[in-house]
Amino acid sequence: MAVLLRNCRIVPELTQKIDGISVDEKEDITADIKIENGKFVEILKSGSFKETANCDDITVIDIKGSTVLPGLFELHTHLTLDSTDYSGNLMYDVPELLVKSYEFAKEYLKQGYTTVRDCGGRGNVTRAINMGIANGTFIGPRIISCGRIITPTETGNSSFGDMYIEADGPMEFRKACREQFKLGNDFIKVMCTGAFLNDAGDPGMQIITLEELKECVVTASMKKSYVAAHCHSDAGIRCAIKAGVRTIEHGVFIEPDTVELLKNTKNCFLIPTGAIGMECLSDENQNATEDILNKSKLYEEKEKNAINYAYRSGLKMGFGSDIDMEAFKRIPGYEFVARKKFYDFENVDILKQATINSAEILGVADDYGSIETGKVADMIVVDGKPDKDIYCMQKPLKLVMKEGIIVDDF
Questions:
Q1: pLDDT tens digits, one per residue of 83-138
Q2: What global pTM score does this model have?
Q3: Kind and range of the H or E run holding 227
Q4: Averaged pLDDT of the chain
Q5: Radius of gyration of the chain (CA)
Q6: CA distance 119 to 121
Q7: CATH code that applies to domain 2-70+369-406
Q8: Is the dihedral of CA 338, 339, 345, 350 positive or negative?
Q9: Is the distance from CB of 132 to CB of 138 less than 8 angstroms?
Q10: CA–CA separation, 214 vs 226, rounded Å?
Q11: Is residue 46 within 8 Å of 66, Cβ to Cβ?
Q12: What is the CATH number of domain 72-362?
């Protein structure tokens, strides 16, 4: 059955050009959007569709001027982490992880994320959840998973238990990559530098060699896939760019000349994660260790300045948060808030990062990331005007649609 959404307030930067409407109009632009067989099939100026009241094969919903956005993308999460009590997380066995991770995945869909990239988990449960979602057993976002995170032997690895797999030397990294693909995962995640959240980890230190990282890229390329690199230090970021990784995760210490290098590097993108930076400093986070808190305070301004410079320079960025389920539920729209409050980004650019930019980074923009005829009908309806006030993204959504189906079983 087809669905017709009437009087949808659109964001022009995320919606195809509509006949009879000028994007220069200062008043709100509204459209009627028809969805059929899971795709957007017609997008016309409001009132352009013929009367449908007597049609049995179409459901008509009046959006009444609320804002419609494409389904959101989360490019950096860990579905098996339900709080910042990392030692507590390690106590869960695989069945418990499966239940908790599925709860997290459903919360993502509830908040409008129709595509989620899991950047490291335990027990390969995210892969199992995605299989259940894909075959209709579960309700949730589509999940892109890396399996376990591959890391050199390093201080602090035990903080996350079997979420990590240690490797030293190119051949061990090759084998570890192949193991993740053998388990059905979609891409490879590698630690290039130390981490804020690993006890005694040094985020300013590169911990991988260029040869090790290149081997991961070659192995992933053979599977028509890519590498996501955890990087904080500028040296680590440069190593990742030289090795040919696709995404730089975090990028906290990126220097201006490295920003320019990244801008001129094809198919390599930065995924800042503002929410985890805010969360580590939050008074409501009772689980941050003294080590994590000290590092976060020490580098807070450096992170803000570095990421803001990269943004102001015009660097394309994806959308990731890196926060756990407890924080994600406590502060809906956390990453939207962080990019406004922590990084000082503009509203429309934040929305683009969460939609079309992230779709382009994943190589799926032909099907997702904007509201255009022929694309998959992933869409949300927001209570307010997020292009004018990004804090609207903290409100409960009026509607979530995935693949043309309205989702209401949360």
A1: 767 667 777 888 999 999 999 999 999 999 999 999 999 999 999 999 999 999 99
A2: 0.95
A3: strand 227-231
A4: 93
A5: 21
A6: 7
A7: 2.30.40.10
A8: negative
A9: yes
A10: 11
A11: no
A12: 3.20.20.140
